[in-house]
């Protein structure tokens, strides 16, 4: 998750819906609950409660638990809470047999079906570290947080989502536990074959690329379709590229400036010469002082087509594939003779037919998962439940995603134009990014003309106003593509 640059706050999906005038949130969620067929979904996911409050009412209350203090939420949720008590809610979250992943998957599929057919869709993967304290919290370990550049104790949530022009849907989650300063379970699981016990073993034993592979294949088996796979530099590895090859996904990844070798083929004196070079060597030979301006943007780029061997060891038979490397200069100083040490980035695309502008527009769709993580941490209770049970952690990450899905679907069912516009602005996808970049040039001309008429009154302040507006616009575009200086320097570590 990247919070390197400070940007104007976007409207929060949760706050916007709760404060929208004329909408009774209780009725919205109650009707949506029925329209989605949540009783059937819970039954298919194996959610059963033999006595006491029906499981449907318990899950409904858990979904709205965070918002029970809001005046507009009380009709169903408060009555249910008063009848069942908090112990019932915590007991449900601590159950080791509940398959929260299946419930989340079924709800996410319904959210995805509401999107238009034929538009570009992409799987997006990213992780976020939630700082946690307490010696009695199992599964806590030390993680490197690439947003701050330091290690911290906490839990790392790996999320797979679907991003498109119509919005963003979180599809699946996994907890990743590192092997550094790991806090063991105080007590063994009641049943070693339970859903929670299996998830705990995955969190401890699997690597993140292995987890990503499981998340993507599970989504494909559920019938969720996408054409592209997007991820930042922390997932730019051979394992991820190989996964995309096996699942017929076009990978668009940020790549670190590592020692990974690429094969370049060149003709010299009528002969084909092949050389293997890393990113920095490629930059020195084919990119430095050869930048080309991207139309309508403040940064420059250079495309280099190379080959990459996907094998991990020298003993394996070579598996070369064609890839396109897009070098992008993270500087808006067009007159600068040469780039600095860190102010350029590299994108890898497994489709050589995609032009530079389309690669950047598609990668901008990744920004939606950043918005989701911000929403999840601030408003949706990601890992905020007061429980030290591993089952509660699993329940929390999936409940957070379910709440987001419910909010998106609730807004879509309202049919209010302003709600749809806000939802689209939150998801910051390829259409919004590319169209905004082009539209800004038109708005800039209009604003400049309007300010010129006020120049006699405002004087030199007119220039300052225009420069300030343009700075904020470019800041947003740079943040969406992760071209801010802090991200570039962290990738170089």
Q: What is the mean pLDDT?
A: 81
Radius of gyration: 24 Å
Structural class: alpha+beta
Profile the largest sheet. Answer: 10 strands, mixed
Elements, N to C (H/E): HHHHHHEEEEHHEHEEEHEEEEHHHHHHHH
- Proportion of β residues? 15-25%
Percent of residues in helical segments?
A: 40-55%
User: How many domains make up the 3D coordinates?
Assistant: 2
Uncertain regions spanning at least 5 consecutive residues = 1-11, 70-78, 334-339, 416-435
Count of individual beta strands: 12
Shape: globular
> Tally the helices: what do you get?
18
The end-to-end span amounts to 17 Å
Characterization of this structure:
The two termini are 17 Å apart. The protein has helices at 13-19, 25-35, 38-44, 55-64, 77-93, 100-113, 195-205, 208-221, 238-246, 279-287, 356-363, 367-378, 390-414, 417-427, 430-453, 455-458, 461-480, 485-491; strands at residues 121-131, 141-145, 150-164, 167-176, 228-231, 250-255, 262-268, 271-277, 292-293, 300-309, 320-329, 344-349. It has 2 domains: 8-226 and 379-416, no CATH class; 254-364, no CATH class. A hairpin with a 4-residue loop joins strand 2 (141-145) and strand 3. Residues 1-11, 70-78, 334-339 and 416-435 have low confidence and may be disordered. Strands 1, 2, 3, 4, 5, 6, 9, 10, 11 and 12 form a 10-stranded mixed beta sheet that branches. It is an alpha+beta fold.
């Amino acid at each position: 998750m990247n919070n390197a640059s400070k940007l104007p706050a976007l409207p929060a999906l949760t706050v916007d819906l709760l404060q929208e005038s004329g909408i009774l949130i209780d009725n919205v969620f109650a009707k949506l609950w029925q329209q989605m067929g949540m009783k059937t979904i819970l039954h298919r996911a194996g959610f059963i409660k033999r006595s006491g409050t029906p499981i449907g009412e318990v899950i409904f209350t858990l979904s709205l638990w965070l918002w029970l203090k809001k005046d507009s939420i009380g009709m169903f949720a408060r009555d249910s809470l008063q009848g069942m008590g908090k112990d019932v809610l915590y007991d449900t979250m601590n159950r080791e047999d509940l398959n929260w992943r299946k419930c989340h998957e079924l709800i996410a599929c319904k959210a995805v079906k509401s999107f238009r057919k034929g538009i570009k869709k992409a799987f997006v993967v990213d992780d976020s570290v939630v700082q946690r304290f307490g010696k009695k919290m199992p599964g806590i370990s030390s993680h490197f947080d690439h947003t701050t550049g330091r290690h911290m104790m906490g839990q790392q949530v790996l999320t797979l989502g679907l991003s498109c022009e119509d919005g963003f849907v979180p599809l699946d989650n996994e907890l990743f536990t590192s092997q550094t300063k790991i806090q063991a379970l105080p007590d063994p699981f009641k049943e070693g074959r339970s859903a929670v016990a299996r998830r705990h073993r995955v969190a401890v034993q699997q690597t993140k690329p292995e987890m990503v592979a499981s998340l993507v294949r599970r989504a494909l088996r559920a019938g969720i379709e996408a054409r592209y796979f997007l991820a930042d530099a922390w997932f730019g590895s051979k394992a991820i590229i190989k996964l995309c090859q096996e699942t017929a996904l076009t990978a668009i990844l940020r790549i670190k400036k590592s020692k990974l070798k690429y094969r370049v083929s060149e003709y010299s004196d009528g002969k084909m010469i092949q050389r293997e070079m890393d990113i920095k060597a490629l930059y020195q030979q084919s990119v430095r002082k050869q930048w080309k301006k991207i139309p309508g943007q403040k940064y420059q780029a250079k495309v280099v087509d190379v080959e990459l061997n996907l094998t991990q060891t020298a003993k394996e038979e070579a598996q070369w594939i064609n890839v396109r490397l897009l070098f992008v200069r993270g500087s808006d100083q067009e007159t600068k003779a040469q780039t600095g040490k860190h102010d350029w980035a590299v994108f890898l695309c497994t489709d050589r037919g995609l032009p530079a502008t389309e690669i950047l527009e598609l990668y901008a769709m990744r920004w939606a998962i950043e918005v989701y993580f911000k929403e999840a941490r601030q408003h949706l209770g990601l890992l905020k439940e007061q429980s030290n049970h591993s089952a509660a952690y699993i329940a929390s990450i999936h409940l957070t995603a379910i709440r987001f899905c419910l909010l998106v679907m609730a807004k879509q069912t309202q049919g209010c134009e302003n709600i749809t516009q806000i939802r689209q602005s939150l998801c910051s996808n390829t259409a919004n990014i590319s169209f905004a970049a082009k539209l800004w040039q038109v708005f800039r001309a209009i604003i400049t003309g309007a300010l010129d008429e006020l120049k006699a009154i405002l004087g030199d302040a007119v220039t300052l106003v225009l420069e300030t507006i343009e700075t904020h616009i470019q800041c947003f575009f740079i943040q969406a593509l992760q071209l801010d200086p802090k991200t570039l320097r962290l990738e170089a570590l």
